[in-house]
Amino acid sequence: MKKSFEKLLTKPLPINPFKPEKALITDIEDLAPDHKKFSFVFLNEEVNEKWSHIPGQFVMLTVPKAGEIPISICSSPTRKGTIELTVRKVGRKTEVLHRMKPGDLVAIRGPYGNGFPVEIMEGHNVLIIAGGLGIAPLRSLIWYILDKRHLYKDVYILYGTRNYESVLYKEELRRLRERNDIKCLYILDKFKSEEDKKWTDREGLLTILIPEVALDPQETFVAVCGPPVAYRFIGKELIKNGYPESQVFVSLERKMECGIGKCGHCQIGYKFACVDGPIFPLWDTKNLPEMI
């Protein structure tokens, strides 16, 4: 590799890691049942101008009268001025957020954690593997790479979920499949409707798409996000097909808590998901099996 993995340690730091900044909801998009994409801008123009992140990082979102929740950023840092977060309604805090409207105020602090090593990935192939809601944090990486397409070689996107109804970013994914500078392979667990069959001609588990990827594994970086329980099977299939585990990165965004490693709820062995992650090399999941 041409670039040192010390680059993983270089990341944008919050202007003040303890201070939430007021933000305005500018747009809300229904994506799937119980899933919405929220767009925000900071009220402080200076913060809005300076704020940046790396794909894979997350923020702490304060929902008025409900509390704080950690959410991965689904927008790309190449597109300044707006922060986008995709939120699944599960629990009281997200239920309150889902009732909010454009024009309502929230507070955001961050960004936190390590993102994907996008600079190290430059000059290499990139394979992006998303399962279910895992497409949300990977959306940031997808658009980052597409906005800097000249810096990367061949790009594949593998996406799998239960059925067409649960597919997130339906129109975006449809347009991505029509592009000639990337290759997209989509799969659904089981066909249950005509819409399912129209969306993709493949039925089954996400792992069966991996052997169909026509990339040189030694020259490829892999980014994976989905249910952590699936990482064991995805990782096994990737290694079987020749991908070095040192070039495979997984997101443990579901294990995030306070954002600064103080509460201890995200501790995994000797690491903290909030500080050392949420992006980890695959080999970490083998050394610390409690990760998944």
How would you characterize the overall build of this protein?
This protein is an alpha/beta fold. Helices cover 21% and strands 28% of the residues. The chain contains eight helices and 14 strands. It has helices at 45-50, 92-98, 118-121, 135-147, 170-178, 194-199, 231-240, 282-287, and strands spanning 21-32, 35-42, 58-63, 67-72, 83-88, 105-112, 125-131, 155-161, 183-188, 220-225, 248-251, 267-268, 271-272, 279-281. It has a six-stranded antiparallel beta sheet with strand order 4-3-6-1-2-5. A six-stranded mixed beta sheet has the order 9-8-7-10-11-14. The chain has a two-stranded antiparallel sheet with strand order 12-13. The chain starts with 20 loop residues before the first strand and ends in a 5-residue tail after the last helix. Mean pLDDT is 87; it is low at 1-10.
